[in-house]
Structures are given as structure tokens and as C-alpha cells.
Amino acid sequence: MKNYSIAKSRRLRSTPYTSRIEKQGVTAYTIYNHMLLPAAFGSVEDSYHHLKEHVQIWDVAAERQVEISGKDSAKLVQLMTCRDLSKSKDGRCYYCPIIDDQGGLINDPVVLRLSQEKWWISIADSDVILFAKGLAIGNKFDVKIFEPNVDIMAVQGPKSFKLMEKVFGEKITKLKFFGFDYFNFEGADHLIAQSGWSKQGGYEIYVQNTESGQKLYDHLFEAGKEFNVKPGCPNLIERIESALLSFGNDMDNNDNPFECGFDKYVNLDSDAKFLGKEKLIKIKEEGITKKLMGIKIDINEISVTGSLDLTDENNNLIGELRSACYSPHFKKVIGIAMMQKGYWNLEQNVKVVVNGHNCIGKVCDLPFI
After folding, report:
1. Domain 18-63+150-240 sits in CATH 3.30.420.40
2. pLDDT digits (tens, 9 = 90+) for 311-356
3. For the structural domain made of 289-369, what CATH number should be given?
4. In what helix (H) or strand (E) does residue 210 lie, and over which residues does it extend?
């Protein structure tokens, strides 16, 4: 597939780390929240193997924050998500599907509770800030909503824990998964969470001091030499194997949380007041008619830039393949598909046309690994 360059502009913002990653050999970008997000440093498969064995530093500043503060901030955040946050605590991250009045997904962010009256919504790729402002205006909430100057870098991989301990001391190893605290680097405090968009373990550093963040970025590479540190980015192969869903790819506003396997984040029996609650109650009572499932196909190459139709032996449309890649672990193509009801049985055969060739695949559970 031919590659095309992306024309940079004020509308497609670079990050504080862009000049550094370009010197380090970034080979592809995508656009995420109107910003440049590195998509490759050479071979995606080579990066996949390195990520699973060593440690990488990622420029994920495109993972923007929506800050909501003020007297009614907790009410607004709760109104946006089907997850009950009444027992949330300061210093914790929460995976929270954001839905509209029909139960359709708007985003699937991680919500950070900085205090009862100050929250960060760490968003996937959609304009959540406009949704939040509309709800605040319509409900006359006493809140302040804006995008703070926060540029995340992620430290991911099994050796990330040793690298971060080397830089920040033993205290950082005490962080629990989805917990965050503040850690000092050369006089500047950085909010650091044990989180990240891989299943290999690691941290996300929410940088608010650009100069200090750039120095920290450089220092992590210097300190990480003994751990074979390399630049990296969210890896297509690793994220599909781990079933880390991508909003806009695997799911969108036409899908609801139940269809995407988010049942445990939908708290219908609580007193929480959120948009679309009655709609989700009805959906749960009636049952869903489609669901995200895994697909395995016995081929060794695929490129999915749009959905691919999945059919049965009679050529009836039974689903759509939304993301896929070649998996070195399974030695075949694996993918994430939205399957129609009646075709969720494991080992269900599906037909799909890939690069003009008719291929046979099988339905399986998620995650793959």
C-alpha cells in the first residue's frame, strides 16, 4: 500500500516531543484528537517483539485531557458515563465508557479523579470537550471545562518498572495499577499513573511543564540504555492480540457498551444518574443483536483501512471485520469483528475477501492472549 505524507499545520498540532521522535526515526504518523500521533518506527513487527521484551518511550501527547472542575464537576462527569463513580477516590484512574442519550458510545476514556471537584478525562479520539460543554450548558452546571496543557509520554514494556525505579526511586514501584501520584524530576512534579495502552505493563507521565518534560524524555533514554530502551508507539499487533479496543476503529457511536463487552462498566442498579440509562436498561432486557468477537484467518498478510464484510457459506452478511493484523504469536491473521446475533458460536466459519482473494476464518473469543 502506498504511503502519503501528512501536511502539518496549526490545525494538526505537533507535540513537545515531535522534533525528538523525528530524529529518532519515526516513519509514520496518524491523526488523533487533531494532533500528530506516531504510528510506526520502521517495522511494526520488530517493534512488537521489542515491546514485549524490553522498554519503549511513547509520544502519546495526542491523548488529550478534558479538565472539569467546580461545584458540579462530579455531577457532570457522572452524567456522561454509565459507570457508577459515587465511590471513586482521589488518586485513582477509572475506565469509563461515555455514552449519549441513546446509549451509543461517544468515547471510552480513562477518568482521573484529582479531587472531588477536579477531574481529568483522558480521551480517545473524539471531541468530548464539546459534548461536556453542551451538557454543562443545558443543565446549568457550575463547572469550568477546558483542555489543560498536558502532554503524555508513556513508558511501556516489561522493563519499564526497572527504568522508572532508576529515575524516580523505589516509591514508584508501590503504585497500584490505575493508581497515580506525583513524582519529582529536577524540581518539577509530574503526575504519573501506572497505566498505558499495552498489556506489557508500564506508566503514563502527564507532563504539564514542557521544559521539564523534554528533559525527562531525554533522560529516560539515557537512563534506559541498560534496558535496551527504544522509541515506540501504540502497537497494532500487540493491541489487537490483547483486545485493547480502539474507538473509531473497533467501535463508534453506532455501538453500545453491551455490544462492546463493557458490561462490568455499566452500573444500571446503582443510584447514579447518567445519560442513556433508561435506554441501556431496555437494551439489557431485550438483549443485544450484535457483539464484538475475535476472528482468526489462515493468511499471513492483511491491511484494513475500512470494514470488511463477513459472510456465511450462503453469502449472507453476518458481520464486519473492523481491525486486523498478522500475529507472529498465532502465525496467522487475527482481527476484531462486530458479529450479528446467531453467529457468536466459537469455531463459526466466516468468509471474507482479502486483497481480492476469498478467505475462510473462524470466530473466537476476545482477548486472543
Report:
1. no
2. 999 999 999 999 999 999 999 999 999 999 999 999 899 999 998 8
3. 2.40.30.110
4. helix 210-223
Cα–Cα distance between 108 and 44 in angstroms, integer?
25
| 18-63+150-240 and 289-369 agree in CATH topology | no
Task: Dig out the grid coordinates for 9 from the structure.
Answer: 499545520
Q: Could you give the CA distance from residue 15 to residue 273 in angstroms, rounded to a whole number?
A: 37
Using CA atoms, how far apart are residues 179 and 91, in angstroms rounded to an integer?
A: 6
Query: How many residues does the structure list for the chain?
Result: 369
Residue 41: DSSP 8-state: S
What span, in angstroms and rounded, lies between the C-alpha atoms of 28 and 360?
31
User: Reduced to 3 DSSP states, what percent helix, strand and coil does the chain have, rounded to the nearest 5?
Assistant: 25, 35, 45
Partners of 266 in beta bridges: none
* CA-based R_g, the chain, Å: 21
Q: List, for residues 167-207, the tens digit of each pLDDT value.
A: 999 999 999 999 999 999 999 999 999 999 999 999 999 99
pTM of the entire predicted model: 0.96
What is the Cα–Cα distance from 216 to 16, expressed in whole angstroms? 12
